[in-house]
Design a protein that fits this description.
Shape: globular
Strand content: under 5%
Oligomer: single chain
Structural class: mainly alpha
Distance between the termini: 7 Å
Radius of gyration: 22 Å
Length: about 425
């Protein structure tokens, strides 16, 4: 395939949404450890009739954007299949053996590196109530099965955010079967996956009195509708790329995108207003949030070029490239900086809660928050870049180099 054709097939909004979601997730976790808010003056928009202006709701609802990353995973995995559905002459998707090899090489080396660093420096059998707990936690993480063990899920000594990798690996295992069904019966398979997710949530994730089962809300069955929306978005997007979008339609798409954005903001603000039952709200609205995001992803690809450029420029693509290592390392950076008192902060009193972020009003507190933010973001990006360019890419070239070279030779022969 020629380079111009590859650029035409590129879905620009996917990079933008991935980068934006990763930054919001990082902001959410950082807000939990710093309570940094009020970045903009509350009266900033008072001349426009807005009495109080605050963007704190963005990091405080960042947990929802993990679902966006999973949505994008389903979208990107199925996009080659969707292009073949739209155009029988499009390049064939990877064979199952190549597919599994690429997925394992993409995910496991960097993931195992994080686990190895924790075992080397911070995780010891003596930290656990029994040797059995240590081995369950360790082996379940190395095999991406920690979400099946309540102890490893709730009380792990590894980064708690790694549960997402476990769900992703499980989805990779069943994806070839789901993709085959989706190719033949797209709407039926989408409906079946969405219904299966709702049934699982109804019987396993929802609890009486408006609460949720925290162990089951993040299991793969509860995420099937998110993946299904991503796969269906790939089908629609591939068809649009095949047919083309006229100039007038692009302006209409821009207006619909604005409406979708407002709907998503209203949905997130609703979740913030009901923060006491946030996990229940999350599973109750998971399908609709992912569906609106999937529609936004497709329609952003139909907007005028300047809008698409906002979601696919060098800066955005760079953040998107680092996103996996950012996800793997940012929580460790955040917690270790705080544990090592970088930047320094005084001891809290015997009754101090969530110290030092709860020390609001202390003379040193605001300065500490901003210094902590600067260290967190700079160290996270530096470590993610190091992991991406000095480990992930060399390992990928080492393990996949021969396969990629064979693919390039085959494409030259057929072009």
């Amino acid at each position: 395939m020629r380079s111009s054709e590859r650029r035409a097939d590129r879905v620009a909004a996917a990079d933008g949404l991935r980068a934006l979601s990763m930054l919001i997730i990082m902001g959410f976790h950082f807000w939990q450890q710093s309570w940094l808010q009020g970045i903009f003056p509350p009266d900033l928009l008072s001349p426009l009739g807005v009495p109080v202006f605050s963007l704190t709701w963005i990091p405080r609802t960042g947990y929802m954007f993990v679902d966006v990353l999973l949505l994008l995973s389903g979208f990107c995995l199925f996009l080659p299949e969707a292009r073949r559905m739209a155009d029988p002459l499009a390049p064939a998707p990877d064979a199952p053996g190549v597919y599994f090899k690429k997925r394992l090489v993409r995910i496991l080396p960097c993931y195992w590196l994080v686990l190895a660093v924790f075992l080397l420096f911070w995780v010891r059998p003596s930290d656990y109530a029994s040797p059995a707990d240590f081995w369950v936690d360790t082996l379940s993480h190395f095999t991406c099965t920690q979400v099946f063990f309540p102890g490893a899920y709730y009380f792990t000594h590894f980064p708690t955010s790694l549960w997402t990798v476990s769900v992703e690996m499980q989805f990779y295992l069943v994806f070839p079967l789901l993709a085959r069904l989706f190719r033949r019966f797209p709407l039926l398979t989408w409906g079946g996956m969405s219904l299966a997710a709702e049934i699982y949530i109804a019987f396993r994730a929802r609890l009486p009195e408006g609460m949720a089962n925290a162990f089951h809300i993040n299991q793969l069955p509860a995420m099937l509708a998110v993946y299904a929306n991503g796969m269906l978005a790939a089908v629609v997007c591939a068809a649009l790329l095949r047919c083309g979008v006229k100039k007038r339609a692009r302006l209409c798409a821009l207006g619909v995108c604005a409406a979708l954005y407002i709907a998503l903001v209203c949905m997130l603000r609703d979740g913030l207003d009901r923060a006491a039952e946030v996990q229940r709200w999350q599973v109750d609205y998971r399908f609709w949030f992912s569906a609106l995001t999937a529609a936004l992803l497709v329609l952003l690809e139909c907007t005028p070029r300047p809008v698409r450029a906002l979601f696919s420029n060098r800066a955005v693509r760079f953040v998107s490239l680092l996103s996996y290592n950012l996800y793997l390392w940012h929580q460790t950076v955040m917690l270790k900086l705080k544990a090592w008192r970088l930047p320094p902060y005084p001891d809290g009193g015997p009754d101090a809660y969530a110290w030092p972020q709860s020390a609001s009003g202390a003379p040193w507190h605001s300065a500490w928050q901003w210094q902590y933010a600067a260290l967190f973001w700079s160290v996270s990006f530096a470590l993610a870049a190091l992991g991406t360019f000095c480990f992930e890419r060399p390992v990928s070239r080492l393990l996949l180099g021969r396969g990629k070279a064979a693919e390039r030779r085959a494409r030259k022969r057929t072009s």
